[in-house]
Automatic annotation (TrEMBL):
Quaternary structure and interacting proteins, as annotated: Heterotetramer of 2 PyrK and 2 PyrD type B subunits.
SUPFAM superfamilies: Ferredoxin reductase-like, C-terminal NADP-linked domain, Riboflavin synthase domain-like
Span of domain FAD-binding FR-type: 2-102
UniProt keyword terms in alphabetical order: 2Fe-2S, Electron transport, FAD, Flavoprotein, Iron, Iron-sulfur, Metal-binding, Pyrimidine biosynthesis, Transport
Name assigned to this protein: Dihydroorotate dehydrogenase B (NAD(+)), electron transfer subunit
Family, as annotated: Belongs to the PyrK family.
Source organism (scientific name): Dialister succinatiphilus YIT 11850
Length: 255
Protein backbone atom coordinates (compact mmCIF):
# COMPACT_ATOMS: atom_id res chain seq x y z
CA UNK A 1 0.00 0.00 0.00
CA UNK A 2 1.44 3.38 -1.01
CA UNK A 3 -0.58 5.49 1.37
CA UNK A 4 -3.59 7.71 0.83
CA UNK A 5 -3.80 11.19 -0.63
CA UNK A 6 -5.72 13.33 1.83
CA UNK A 7 -6.31 17.06 1.77
CA UNK A 8 -6.48 17.98 5.43
CA UNK A 9 -7.38 21.14 7.26
CA UNK A 10 -4.58 22.57 9.40
CA UNK A 11 -5.89 22.73 12.99
CA UNK A 12 -2.74 23.85 14.84
CA UNK A 13 0.36 25.59 13.51
CA UNK A 14 2.79 26.89 16.11
CA UNK A 15 6.37 28.12 16.15
CA UNK A 16 7.94 25.86 18.81
CA UNK A 17 11.72 26.23 18.49
CA UNK A 18 14.50 27.86 16.49
CA UNK A 19 13.09 27.76 12.91
CA UNK A 20 10.91 24.83 14.00
CA UNK A 21 7.14 24.55 13.55
CA UNK A 22 4.59 22.08 14.86
CA UNK A 23 1.55 21.42 12.71
CA UNK A 24 -1.55 19.33 13.40
CA UNK A 25 -3.53 18.40 10.30
CA UNK A 26 -6.89 16.66 10.02
CA UNK A 27 -6.01 13.51 8.04
CA UNK A 28 -8.31 10.76 9.38
CA UNK A 29 -7.23 7.88 7.13
CA UNK A 30 -3.53 8.55 7.61
CA UNK A 31 -3.98 9.04 11.39
CA UNK A 32 -5.68 5.64 11.62
CA UNK A 33 -2.97 3.73 9.73
CA UNK A 34 0.29 5.47 10.67
CA UNK A 35 3.03 3.71 12.63
CA UNK A 36 6.11 5.28 14.28
CA UNK A 37 8.88 5.78 11.71
CA UNK A 38 6.53 6.42 8.79
CA UNK A 39 6.24 9.76 7.04
CA UNK A 40 3.84 11.93 5.08
CA UNK A 41 4.82 13.36 1.70
CA UNK A 42 3.58 16.93 1.82
CA UNK A 43 2.60 19.03 -1.19
CA UNK A 44 3.34 22.60 -0.24
CA UNK A 45 0.45 24.87 -1.27
CA UNK A 46 2.59 26.82 -3.71
CA UNK A 47 2.61 26.07 -7.47
CA UNK A 48 6.35 26.93 -7.65
CA UNK A 49 7.22 23.76 -5.70
CA UNK A 50 6.06 20.72 -7.60
CA UNK A 51 7.76 17.98 -5.58
CA UNK A 52 6.34 16.87 -2.27
CA UNK A 53 8.49 17.11 0.90
CA UNK A 54 8.89 14.07 3.20
CA UNK A 55 8.16 14.83 6.87
CA UNK A 56 8.08 12.23 9.68
CA UNK A 57 4.89 11.71 11.59
CA UNK A 58 5.49 12.91 15.17
CA UNK A 59 2.20 11.65 16.55
CA UNK A 60 -1.40 10.85 15.75
CA UNK A 61 -4.78 11.07 17.41
CA UNK A 62 -6.80 8.48 15.53
CA UNK A 63 -9.99 9.39 17.42
CA UNK A 64 -9.86 13.01 16.24
CA UNK A 65 -8.23 12.09 12.91
CA UNK A 66 -5.19 14.27 13.61
CA UNK A 67 -1.62 13.84 12.34
CA UNK A 68 1.14 15.91 13.93
CA UNK A 69 4.36 16.89 12.16
CA UNK A 70 7.29 18.97 13.38
CA UNK A 71 9.50 20.54 10.75
CA UNK A 72 12.50 22.82 10.43
CA UNK A 73 12.70 25.58 7.81
CA UNK A 74 15.72 24.68 5.67
CA UNK A 75 14.70 25.84 2.19
CA UNK A 76 11.94 27.21 0.03
CA UNK A 77 9.40 24.40 0.51
CA UNK A 78 9.51 24.41 4.30
CA UNK A 79 9.61 28.23 4.27
CA UNK A 80 6.37 28.23 2.21
CA UNK A 81 4.84 25.72 4.66
CA UNK A 82 5.59 28.02 7.59
CA UNK A 83 3.32 30.71 6.06
CA UNK A 84 0.27 28.43 6.05
CA UNK A 85 -2.51 29.38 8.45
CA UNK A 86 -4.88 27.40 10.67
CA UNK A 87 -7.87 26.61 8.44
CA UNK A 88 -5.76 26.24 5.25
CA UNK A 89 -5.64 22.82 3.61
CA UNK A 90 -2.54 20.72 3.01
CA UNK A 91 -2.28 17.88 0.49
CA UNK A 92 -0.54 14.90 2.12
CA UNK A 93 0.34 11.42 0.83
CA UNK A 94 0.84 8.82 3.52
CA UNK A 95 1.52 7.05 5.68
CA UNK A 96 4.60 6.02 3.68
CA UNK A 97 7.61 3.81 4.38
CA UNK A 98 8.59 1.29 6.99
CA UNK A 99 8.18 1.64 10.76
CA UNK A 100 10.23 0.91 13.88
CA UNK A 101 9.82 -2.46 15.61
CA UNK A 102 7.80 -1.65 18.74
CA UNK A 103 7.51 -5.22 20.05
CA UNK A 104 10.62 -5.30 22.25
CA UNK A 105 10.40 -4.86 26.04
CA UNK A 106 13.02 -2.13 26.49
CA UNK A 107 13.68 0.21 23.57
CA UNK A 108 16.16 3.08 23.65
CA UNK A 109 15.11 5.83 21.22
CA UNK A 110 17.90 8.20 20.25
CA UNK A 111 17.07 11.39 18.34
CA UNK A 112 18.96 14.44 17.15
CA UNK A 113 17.61 17.58 15.44
CA UNK A 114 14.29 17.06 13.68
CA UNK A 115 15.14 13.35 13.81
CA UNK A 116 13.57 13.51 17.24
CA UNK A 117 10.11 13.59 15.59
CA UNK A 118 9.78 9.82 14.87
CA UNK A 119 11.25 9.03 18.31
CA UNK A 120 8.49 11.21 19.79
CA UNK A 121 5.86 9.22 17.87
CA UNK A 122 7.42 5.99 19.21
CA UNK A 123 7.29 7.29 22.79
CA UNK A 124 3.68 8.39 22.40
CA UNK A 125 2.75 4.94 21.02
CA UNK A 126 4.84 2.99 23.55
CA UNK A 127 3.70 1.03 26.59
CA UNK A 128 4.30 2.44 30.10
CA UNK A 129 8.04 2.13 30.87
CA UNK A 130 8.88 0.51 27.51
CA UNK A 131 11.14 3.32 26.26
CA UNK A 132 14.19 5.19 27.39
CA UNK A 133 14.60 8.36 25.32
CA UNK A 134 17.89 10.11 24.59
CA UNK A 135 17.73 13.44 22.77
CA UNK A 136 20.43 15.99 22.12
CA UNK A 137 20.82 19.49 20.76
CA UNK A 138 23.36 22.25 20.58
CA UNK A 139 21.80 24.25 23.42
CA UNK A 140 18.76 24.60 25.70
CA UNK A 141 16.60 26.20 22.97
CA UNK A 142 17.14 23.18 20.70
CA UNK A 143 15.95 20.63 23.27
CA UNK A 144 12.46 22.18 23.70
CA UNK A 145 11.31 18.72 22.52
CA UNK A 146 11.75 17.31 26.03
CA UNK A 147 8.43 18.86 27.09
CA UNK A 148 6.55 17.07 24.28
CA UNK A 149 7.42 13.56 25.51
CA UNK A 150 4.84 11.66 27.58
CA UNK A 151 5.45 10.85 31.26
CA UNK A 152 5.14 7.11 30.55
CA UNK A 153 8.72 6.89 29.23
CA UNK A 154 11.03 4.97 31.56
CA UNK A 155 13.77 7.62 31.49
CA UNK A 156 14.31 10.85 29.57
CA UNK A 157 17.96 11.78 28.99
CA UNK A 158 18.73 15.19 27.49
CA UNK A 159 22.16 16.33 26.36
CA UNK A 160 23.35 19.70 25.06
CA UNK A 161 26.67 20.39 23.36
CA UNK A 162 27.21 23.53 25.48
CA UNK A 163 25.89 22.11 28.76
CA UNK A 164 23.09 24.72 29.00
CA UNK A 165 20.58 21.94 29.76
CA UNK A 166 20.92 18.32 30.93
CA UNK A 167 24.17 16.43 30.39
CA UNK A 168 26.97 18.28 28.57
CA UNK A 169 28.07 16.46 25.42
CA UNK A 170 26.66 14.65 22.42
CA UNK A 171 23.63 12.39 22.84
CA UNK A 172 25.57 9.26 21.87
CA UNK A 173 28.04 9.80 24.73
CA UNK A 174 25.51 8.38 27.22
CA UNK A 175 24.92 5.16 25.28
CA UNK A 176 27.84 2.94 26.41
CA UNK A 177 26.85 3.37 30.09
CA UNK A 178 23.18 2.86 29.32
CA UNK A 179 23.84 -0.30 27.31
CA UNK A 180 26.17 -1.62 30.06
CA UNK A 181 23.87 -0.94 33.01
CA UNK A 182 20.47 -1.92 31.63
CA UNK A 183 19.04 -4.76 29.62
CA UNK A 184 18.29 -3.04 26.31
CA UNK A 185 16.48 -5.03 23.62
CA UNK A 186 16.60 -2.51 20.79
CA UNK A 187 18.07 0.89 19.89
CA UNK A 188 16.16 3.10 17.43
CA UNK A 189 18.05 6.05 15.98
CA UNK A 190 17.13 9.06 13.86
CA UNK A 191 19.32 12.12 13.35
CA UNK A 192 22.42 13.37 11.57
CA UNK A 193 24.49 10.71 9.75
CA UNK A 194 27.46 10.83 12.13
CA UNK A 195 25.15 10.40 15.13
CA UNK A 196 23.39 7.40 13.59
CA UNK A 197 26.70 5.81 12.59
CA UNK A 198 28.18 6.22 16.07
CA UNK A 199 25.01 5.03 17.84
CA UNK A 200 24.79 1.99 15.56
CA UNK A 201 28.46 1.10 16.25
CA UNK A 202 27.92 1.42 20.01
CA UNK A 203 24.80 -0.73 19.85
CA UNK A 204 26.63 -3.38 17.85
CA UNK A 205 29.48 -3.41 20.35
CA UNK A 206 26.98 -3.92 23.18
CA UNK A 207 25.11 -6.63 21.24
CA UNK A 208 21.95 -4.51 20.96
CA UNK A 209 19.73 -4.81 17.88
CA UNK A 210 19.63 -1.41 16.16
CA UNK A 211 17.28 0.25 13.68
CA UNK A 212 18.05 3.55 11.95
CA UNK A 213 15.85 5.97 10.02
CA UNK A 214 17.64 7.14 6.88
CA UNK A 215 17.17 10.56 5.32
CA UNK A 216 17.47 11.28 1.61
CA UNK A 217 16.03 13.92 -0.69
CA UNK A 218 12.92 12.43 -2.25
CA UNK A 219 10.93 12.71 -5.43
CA UNK A 220 7.96 10.38 -5.77
CA UNK A 221 8.11 8.93 -2.25
CA UNK A 222 6.62 5.62 -3.45
CA UNK A 223 9.55 3.75 -4.99
CA UNK A 224 9.30 4.65 -8.67
CA UNK A 225 11.79 7.48 -9.40
CA UNK A 226 14.97 6.07 -7.72
CA UNK A 227 15.71 9.54 -6.38
CA UNK A 228 16.34 8.43 -2.81
CA UNK A 229 18.66 5.42 -2.88
CA UNK A 230 21.16 4.40 -0.19
CA UNK A 231 23.84 1.71 -0.42
CA UNK A 232 23.26 -1.82 0.86
CA UNK A 233 25.92 -3.07 3.27
CA UNK A 234 26.14 -6.44 1.49
CA UNK A 235 27.38 -4.67 -1.67
CA UNK A 236 24.40 -5.92 -3.69
CA UNK A 237 23.27 -2.48 -4.85
CA UNK A 238 20.85 -0.05 -3.31
CA UNK A 239 17.73 0.32 -1.24
CA UNK A 240 15.05 2.90 -1.93
CA UNK A 241 14.77 4.91 1.27
CA UNK A 242 11.13 5.88 0.60
CA UNK A 243 9.82 2.36 0.04
CA UNK A 244 12.38 -0.09 1.54
CA UNK A 245 12.91 2.36 4.44
CA UNK A 246 13.22 4.92 5.88
CA UNK A 247 13.62 2.54 8.85
CA UNK A 248 16.28 -0.13 8.28
CA UNK A 249 18.16 -2.68 10.35
CA UNK A 250 21.45 -0.79 10.90
CA UNK A 251 23.33 -3.91 9.74
CA UNK A 252 21.78 -3.70 6.27
CA UNK A 253 22.68 -0.17 5.14
CA UNK A 254 25.85 1.87 4.70
CA UNK A 255 25.55 4.72 7.18
C1 LIG B 1 11.90 10.12 5.67
C2 LIG B 1 12.18 11.58 5.94
C3 LIG B 1 11.61 12.17 7.05
C4 LIG B 1 11.85 13.53 7.31
N1 LIG B 1 11.29 14.08 8.41
C5 LIG B 1 11.46 15.37 8.68
C6 LIG B 1 10.85 15.96 9.82
O1 LIG B 1 10.13 15.31 10.59
N2 LIG B 1 11.04 17.29 10.02
C7 LIG B 1 11.83 18.04 9.18
O2 LIG B 1 12.01 19.23 9.43
N3 LIG B 1 12.44 17.51 8.11
C8 LIG B 1 12.27 16.19 7.83
N4 LIG B 1 12.88 15.64 6.73
C9 LIG B 1 13.70 16.51 5.86
C10 LIG B 1 12.78 17.33 4.95
O3 LIG B 1 12.19 16.47 4.01
C11 LIG B 1 13.58 18.41 4.21
O4 LIG B 1 14.14 19.31 5.14
C12 LIG B 1 12.67 19.17 3.25
O5 LIG B 1 12.27 18.34 2.20
C13 LIG B 1 13.40 20.37 2.69
O6 LIG B 1 12.54 21.01 1.79
P1 LIG B 1 12.81 22.53 1.37
O7 LIG B 1 12.04 22.79 0.12
O8 LIG B 1 12.55 23.43 2.53
O9 LIG B 1 14.35 22.59 1.12
P2 LIG B 1 15.10 22.57 -0.27
O10 LIG B 1 15.01 23.96 -0.85
O11 LIG B 1 14.63 21.43 -1.10
O12 LIG B 1 16.57 22.30 0.23
C14 LIG B 1 17.22 23.17 1.18
C15 LIG B 1 18.46 22.48 1.73
O13 LIG B 1 18.10 21.31 2.47
C16 LIG B 1 18.72 20.15 1.90
N5 LIG B 1 17.76 19.06 1.95
C17 LIG B 1 16.53 19.03 1.38
N6 LIG B 1 15.91 17.86 1.62
C18 LIG B 1 16.76 17.13 2.36
C19 LIG B 1 16.73 15.83 2.94
N7 LIG B 1 15.69 15.01 2.80
N8 LIG B 1 17.81 15.42 3.61
C20 LIG B 1 18.88 16.20 3.76
N9 LIG B 1 18.97 17.44 3.25
C21 LIG B 1 17.95 17.90 2.57
C22 LIG B 1 19.08 20.54 0.50
O14 LIG B 1 20.21 19.83 0.01
C23 LIG B 1 19.43 22.02 0.65
O15 LIG B 1 20.73 22.21 1.13
C24 LIG B 1 12.69 14.30 6.44
C25 LIG B 1 13.26 13.69 5.33
C26 LIG B 1 13.02 12.35 5.09
C27 LIG B 1 13.66 11.70 3.91
S1 LIG C 1 11.62 9.05 -3.80
FE1 LIG C 1 11.17 8.11 -5.71
S2 LIG C 1 12.01 6.10 -5.43
FE2 LIG C 1 12.20 7.03 -3.47
Amino acid sequence: MSGFVEKGIIRVHNHVGPDIWLMQIELPRIAKEAKPGQFVHVKVNDPRYILRRPISIAGTDAGRGIVEIIYRIVGKGTEAMSHLKVGDTLDCLGPLGTSFDMDKDHIVGIGGGVGIAPILFMARASREGQMTVVIGGRNKEEVFWKDLFPKKVRQMIVTTDDGSYGIKGFSVSVLPKLFAEEKVDEACVCGPGIMMRTAAEMAKEAGVFCEVSMERRMGCGIGTCLGCVCDRKDGKGHYKVCADGPVFNAEEVVL
